[in-house]
Amino acid sequence: MTTASHDGxxxxxxxxxxxxxxxxxxxxxxGPRVVPGWRPDAIDVRGRVLDGAGEPVPDAxxxxxxxDESGRIPRRPGGIVRDGHxxxxxxxxxxxxxxxxxxxxxxxxxxxxxxxxxxxxVFARGLLKPVxxxxxxxxxxxxxxxxxxxxxxxxxxxxxxIAAREGERRYRFDIRLQGDRETVFLGF
Length: 188
Prior knowledge:
Elements: E1 3-4, E2 10-11, E3 42-50, E4 61-65, E5 90-94, E6 100-106, E7 117-123, E8 131-136, H1 141-146, H2 148-152, E9 164-167, E10 170-172, E11 175-176
């Protein structure tokens, strides 16, 4: 759809908001399983997407992109197709009624000079475009000090990018879209 300018010539189409999501084909059954849970190096990442009032966002969609445990970025096509054994580097999960999401993946290795992290995209109603953030791991504190992106984030806001450890192979990463303790989002 295009809009007309004051002189009648076509103008740019305004952006539309993202969501609520069509439940067909975007979330898919194996989307949150970047690796199968039976792998000895599998980890669980769980969290919630919350709005500015701290209320759950029940219709958000999250995508993660990451390197494998050695810091290699998958370059082969077919990230959606899972064979039950391989690491794809990509996951997608819709939130439930409580705003909760989950992924089964591996802890990524460092890529270049950065600390190990997972790239996270959040699509949600009211957003014109997805927002981008990163999930870092609490045990990598030494690597955090040298990470160029974390170094550019004000010290008082860095904690919004670091998951909490909830067990040997389980992490919690809540995403706050606005308000108190808003997650740091990246501009591209």
